[in-house]
Fold:
Amino acid sequence: MQRLIPVLNSDHVPLHLISVINTLLTAAKEISHRLHQGSLAGTLGSTLDENIQGETQKKLDIVSNQLIKNMLLETGLVHAVASEEEDDIVMGNPDARYLVAYDPLDGSSNIDINSSVGTIFSILQKPDHPAEGKELFLQTGDEQIAAGYILYGPSTMLVLTTGKGVRAYTLDHTVGEFLLTVDSLTIPHDTQEFAINMSNQRHWSTPMQAYIRDLLSGVDGPRGKNFNMRWNAAMVSDVHRILTRSGLFSYPADSRKPEQPCKLRLLYEANPMSFLVEQAGGRATTGYERIMSLQPTHIHQRCSVIMGSRNEVDACLEYYKSIPCERFDC
Ligand code: AHG
Ligand code: MN
Ligand code: MN
Structure:
C-alpha cells in the first residue's frame, strides 16, 4: 500500500506544503492516541472555559488546539494559524507563505460518549495584496490550496484534497503512517439518505421545512421514493458517510437565536468540507449561493450548509428558488 508522501510527490504537491500536511498528521496521531486512551489519559470531560463562540470547551478541544498550533508554528513554514478555539489568529514566521485554518476537534460533544470525532483543516496562502492580521484569512474557499479532515473512528482516516480529486488514507498503527486506501472518492449523484438535526425542524426557514417534509413523505410524496436519515452530530463523520456512499448533509440557518442563525463555521468547517465535496463531484451551497464563493468578512463567520450528492442538493435548491421567504442572515 502506498504511503502518503510518495502519493503527494507524484501529484507534484510542493515540498513545503507536504511538510505542513505531514505536521498536521503528526498532531493527529497524538490526538488519535489520546482519544483511544479515553479515561485512561485523563482527557475526557469539559473545562470551565468558553471559546470565542460561547461554547464550553472540552479538555480535548484545548489539548488538540495546542498540539496543532504549536507543531505548525514550529515548522517555520506557516505564516499564521486561525482556529475555532482561538479568539484571534496566531502569527508564525513572517517570511512563510502558508496559512492554516482549523477545527481541532469537530463533534466534540461525542468525546465523552466514545463516538467519532474529527479534525478539519484548510490551507491557504498569503494573499498577493497587502493584508495584515485577520485580513490574511478573509479569502474565499476557492483560494484554498489543500483541505481535509482526520476522522477518529473505529479506524483513524485522513481524507485529503489538493485540488486533484479526493483520496483517503488509513492510519496503520503498527507503522505509525497513513496508507492510501481509496485512490479516488466520488459521491454518487443520487441518494436516498439525508443528515440533518430534525429537532430544529420548527425553527428552519420555509424552503427547508418543505423539502424535508417531502423527503419524509417517501414513496407517497412528490419525490416518489423513501429516504433514510442518519445524524452523528459530528460533521466529519456525517460528511465521511456521504463521501463514502452518498447523501445530503445540512445544518441550515434557523430562528432559535436571532443573533446567531447559523451553527457551522465558514473557515474551519464549511469551506474545507465544500472543497472535498466538490472535488468528489458533489455540491455545497448555503441555499442561496455556492459556499466556496462566499467572501468572508470575519474569521469566525458562520454559514448555512447544504452539501452532498449533486442531484439531491439541486432538488433541495429548487425549494429555495421557488418558495419566497425571509432570508436568515448569517
Ligand atoms: P464542534 O464540536 O467543532 O463545535 O462542531 C460540532 C458541529 C458539527 O460537527 C455537527 O454537525 C454539529 O455541530 C452538531 O450539532 P447538534 O449538536 O445541533 O446536533
Ligand atoms: Mn466543528
Ligand atoms: Mn471543534
Notes: The CA atoms of residues 2 and 136 lie 35 Å apart.
